[in-house]
Design brief:
mainly beta, Thrombin, subunit H, 3 domains, signal, Bact_Kbp, LysM peptidoglycan-binding domain-containing protein, LysM_dom_sf
Length: about 350
């Protein structure tokens, strides 16, 4: 099996793309990856590019990188980086892409630091896999509440001077175990997520209300903690729950097919709308226990209707499922996953199928 250089292009765009390269042994075999007939000779990476978008310029299926790279799943989960200023070159003779540009090793640009300027690590300048600004709020905000965690969550008792409608700048009193955290998200259990196939409640979506910082911890078991609300998006009142604010994760995973065959259904469309389009966020009724992880890619299909064939005595005939788009999984729970809709061919609805790529 041909190996990628571990210091080359993130997501192995510099790896050989010959058809003879075998897929990873521990990944489900995806569809055949082909170059587009009108693929450009090269593309200069600019700020705002995504790895998905770059691959769309060259490949028919931008998610099928593992097949053409021959990467194992550990490499897929822990990729390297690609930066603005580098150039992706299509070597048509050898059927491969290679990386050029940049003045450092393997084409990585050299970053000059000034002691007067606050700087970040060079990895922070790398382009993202998908539009990061679309999913950032979903990476840290509580999305799914499991019944086992609801009972023990800290909760709002009331606001200062007995107020029951609170917002930014208000003080509030909270009871519950805070652990070692001092900054918390405030949320309220909202819509029940029901499995379209069984009707079972998979969990409750969380309505995000705002942020609060611990102002004074309780001094006795029967005393409340005092908090200051630092941000609010909706009204906050008694009974609202708190969860520690997690660190912002750096998520830049390579798209890949699930480890095993997945047959899922769309449970809901975030925001309560009826139809989903490009860059919409949807939930599906499969999660970690079904082999999904961050970066898994599924194809979306609208279920074919059953109609009557009037030319054959009104015999029932089922129409074929029609592909509606591609789903990039960016956050997983045990039985539910959240995905970003990519490459829309038609509107996506609750109940539509989400399957492993053919």
């Amino acid at each position: 099996m041909k190996k990628c250089s571990t210091a080359s292009l993130l997501l192995a765009l510099a790896c050989a793309m010959a058809p003879a390269v075998a897929p990873a042994a521990d990944a489900a075999k995806p569809a055949s990856c082909q170059f587009l007939a009108n693929a450009p000779d090269q593309h200069k990476v600019v700020r705002g590019d995504t790895l998905w978008g770059i691959s769309e310029r060259f490949l028919e299926h931008p998610w099928c990188w593992p097949q053409v790279w021959g990467l194992n799943r550990d490499q897929i989960r822990n990729p390297h980086w690609i930066y603005p200023g580098q150039i992706v070159i299509f070597d048509r003779v050898n059927g491969r892409l290679r990386l050029a540009g940049g003045d450092g090793p393997d084409g990585v640009p050299t970053v000059k630091l000034s002691p007067r300027i606050r700087t970040e690590g060079i990895a922070a300048q790398a382009i993202s896999t998908i539009p990061a600004n679309v999913i950032e709020p979903f990476l840290t905000q509580p999305l799914l509440l499991e019944e086992s965690k609801l009972a023990g969550a800290p909760h709002v008792v009331q606001g200062d001077e007995g107020r029951v409608v609170l917002g930014k700048g208000d003080r509030m009193y909270v009871r519950g175990d805070l652990g070692d955290a001092t900054t918390f998200q405030i949320y309220q259990p909202s819509t029940a997520l029901r499995d379209p196939e069984t009707g079972e409640v998979l969990g409750h979506e969380a309505a995000y209300l705002g942020l609060a910082k611990l102002d004074r911890a309780a001094g006795a078991p029967n005393e409340a903690h005092r908090f200051l609300i630092t941000a609010s998006e909706r009204e906050i009142g008694p009974g609202a729950l708190l969860a520690p604010l997690p660190p912002m994760p750096l998520v830049n995973y390579v798209p890949h097919p699930p480890q095993s065959q997945v047959e899922a259904r769309v449970v809901s469309i975030y925001g309560g709308v009826e139809n989903a389009g490009q860059n919409a966020v949807v939930t599906i009724n499969r999660g970690k226990s079904d082999g999904l992880d961050v970066g898994s890619v599924l194809e979306l299909y609208q279920h074919g209707k059953t109609v009557k064939d009037r030319s054959a005595g009104n015999e029932a005939v089922r129409l074929p499922d029609e592909r509606t788009g591609t789903l990039f999984i960016f956050r997983t729970f045990d039985r539910v996953s959240y995905g970003l809709v990519m490459q829309v061919a038609n509107r996506i609805r609750v109940g539509d199928a989400a399957r492993s790529p053919d």
